[in-house]
Amino acid sequence: MILTQRQLEQLWKLNGKIVLPYRARLTPAAQDWIRHGKITIGYDEVKIDLTAPKATGVNPCVTLSGKYLWWSDGPDGVAKAAIGMSGREVKLESMSILEDASRAISAVRTLSQSVAASTATGGVMIVKNAGIATVLANKAPNLRAVVATTMAAVEESIASIAANVLIVERGQWPLNPLKNLLVRFCKLERKIDAVVETELKTLGTADERRCTQIKTCCGGCHK
Hints:
The structure is a single chain. The protein is α/β, with parallel strands linked by helices. It folds into two domains: 2-62, no CATH class; 65-190, 3-Layer(aba) Sandwich (Ribose 5-phosphate Isomerase B, Chain: A). Helix content is 47%, strand content 19%. It is built from eight helices and eleven strands. It has helices at 5-15, 28-37, 77-86, 104-116, 130-137, 151-161, 175-187, 194-221, and strands at 2-3, 18-21, 25-26, 41-44, 46-48, 62-64, 67-72, 91-94, 122-127, 145-147, 165-169. The strands form four sheets. Strands 8-7-9-11-10 form a five-stranded parallel sheet, sandwiched between helices. Strands 1-3 form a two-stranded parallel ribbon. Strand 7, helix 3 and strand 8 (91-94) form a beta-alpha-beta unit. The chain starts with a strand and ends with a helix.
């Protein structure tokens, strides 16, 4: 597979990073663009789709079948058995972090850094409290966490917001359904709906504006 500069620019615009198949090759113009832009290229077992956007308003996507990191905040035999069974079809690698709820932030930080460095596609967190883990994960700009409520809900989150972190509450899923969910989560292609993406950017701009107003106000009050 040979990729052009325009295709790399498209991947960068959609994902904020570039991850290519191991045997991918670049045109001279693409190599110059990477060099001048000082952009880091990641390589993994991925399939890229650079077809034009369809009428549904869904952007082109990158189907990632790379490595996923997992962590649990406590003992859960069923979840670990499901992860072991899933390992026959997808790559799930344990984080070297103590299984303790107080280490949730460390797990999120490790996962975020791995995704940013393109050494992992996403992750799975097995936790007692899904709410806390979801809030922590969604604080990271390159993580989009979804709670494992139903298979349909998880699939919808992957198809609309490109969710790359799965939060599973301990003891809520039987073995086989959880195994199927993990495999499905890791294998599905991730897309960002154009409308949702616009709304997320709008929210981000509003938050930045609000922070600026607060800083200005506080600065004035302390003069």
